[in-house]
Design brief:
The structure is a homodimer.
Chain A (H helix, E strand, L loop, with lengths): L5 H25 L6 H8 L13 H26 L6 H18 L1 H8 L12 H22 L6 H6 L2 H14 L5 H22 L10 H15 L8 H5 L24
Helix pairs in contact in A: 1-2, 3-4, 3-5, 3-6, 4-6, 4-10, 6-9, 8-9, 9-10
The structure holds a DNA duplex.
DNA sequence: CTCGACAGAGAACAATGTTCACGTACGAGA
DNA sequence: TCTCGTACGTGAACATTGTTCTCTGTCGAG
């Protein structure tokens, strides 16, 4: 009796989920640009037109996948945040977070290009939900930085001095819009960090690094720790000790193979 | 008589150029993913099949465009290098180069996503020429860094200390393959710098920055100077003075509008 | 002047997203 | 229990894409 109307709606939700699941499989197999509606329909034993009962268009399906992917990334980051909440070393907390980010990206390569590749469709909007989930993911990164600043680990005074007035104002506006109690300099630091992180991942995932370089793990760790120092991390970092995997829960998983099953972007 | 056979070949070359030109126009107008062979043929008053006399496939046309774009980028960077050869301040030389990079990217947004977006086709190979032109572009960046190290402006000793042995070896191998007389630590510095540069541009161009931020010029300059410091730039940098546009030839052009004509990737 | 290579036309095939008109089965209200 | 509307799904169709044939001119070299 608790499902008076829902009965039908449940089936509908299940179908929607199956469609997205199938689309994700297609995506993982034939790479981006092969999320063909007809392909999905074929794999599900449906007629192409049937899918239009659930998604207004091909683009909307992609948007939905995008939002799911962002949500999954945010979950992963929040999980890492929770796992390392008691870790005293700020550098370690940050490294764990950065690793979690990369870990997700490696397990969801195609989704990553979907999220951070060129904005092919609808440019900015992308179904409010998409933006919301993205901000949720970024918020974890911001909290991490804000904590470091708050506890005195990171000194952003030199960044503060460098800020041009206009940019400073925009950062303030952004902070207010986001509702984060964080100084503009700290926000600039966040952007720097995010920029490096995204640059490293995007070069690695899109295959732009020279073929001789294969030890991306160390390169990534090194860059992520260096950027932390760059934004004003004060304690000296014993690279080897911090990079040692033992004390970083959630990041010493088995070697990452770009298999593409698993729980996937579960809500 | 200097054109015994060439007569025909000249026409052929002209046609090829016209095809690429038309494709570039399509690209600039309807964004990526709309380099349709049929569209190009239509715009040229040709039959689709006629294009196959000049390009084996749609992908090959795109590859050719890619190589041209890389070549154009490399030209721009080399031009900046030449223009600032006599500039004494290393920071200024670097900033000019970074600005030239961004300047090109802003004027060739779609090409940029073609170059640095997800490797959609043929993954790595992409017609030797493509890789060669890319390395030519990167080489300018390397020379800039190598110069700074050579003249003692940049001290990479702390990077050297951080290098894990495996990574160090790979960097050495890469340097040898590239034929650049540059230490592994300096190469790591190059990678860091390139990572930040690419991260910043890719976030900006693909529209991932929050809408409140619009002053990308200052943000970019700031990040590019900071990353220089991070890799070990020793002289103190007077941000305001270095960022002043007057002394940076080739970068104080009129405001950049993403118009998309101009000489384009002339060979 | 003749022949061959090349440029281009035009039809055709497979595959895509999308729409429309048509059935059909399920669940809610009588 | 019966009926009816709504949502689901089919099948055919259209426009578009890349790609491959076969055929026909036309230009240049011998």
């Amino acid at each position: 009796m608790n499902t008076p109307a829902p009965r039908r709606e449940r089936l509908r939700a299940a179908t929607i989920e199956e469609i997205k699941e199938t689309a994700r499989a297609q995506l993982a197999e034939h790479g981006l640009s092969s999320i063909s509606l007809r392909g999905v329909a074929r794999a599900m034993g449906l007629t192409p037109s049937a899918l239009y009962r659930y998604f207004d268009s091909h683009d909307e399906l992609v948007r939905e996948l995008c939002a799911d992917a962002f949500s999954s990334l945010a979950d992963e980051l929040e999980a890492s945040e929770a796992l390392t909440a008691h870790e005293p070393s700020g550098a370690r907390r940050w490294l764990a977070l950065a690793r979690a980010y990369r870990h997700w990206a490696l397990r969801h390569q195609v989704e990553y290009t979907l999220l951070f590749g060129p904005r092919t469709l609808d440019v900015d909007v992308k179904s409010a939900r998409c933006g919301a989930e993205m901000r949720r993911a970024l918020a974890v990164l911001f909290r991490c930085m804000a904590d470091q600043v708050a506890c005195g680990c990171v000194d952003t005074s030199h960044l503060e001095a460098q800020l041009q007035p206009e940019l400073r104002e925009e950062l303030v506006a952004w902070g207010q819009a986001e509702g984060v109690p964080i100084s503009p300099a700290a926000l600039a630091a966040c952007l720097s960090v995010w920029t490096s992180l995204h640059g490293a991942l995007s070069l690695e995932l899109f295959g732009h690094f020279p073929p001789q370089i294969t030890d991306f793990d160390d390169l990534y760790d090194m860059q992520m720790l260096n950027v932390l120092v760059r934004i004003g991390y004060q304690p000296s970092i014993d690279i080897a000790a911090v990079m040692a995997p033992t004390a970083l829960p959630g990041t010493d998983q088995p070697p990452i193979t770009p298999e593409h099953e698993g729980p996937a972007p579960a809500a």
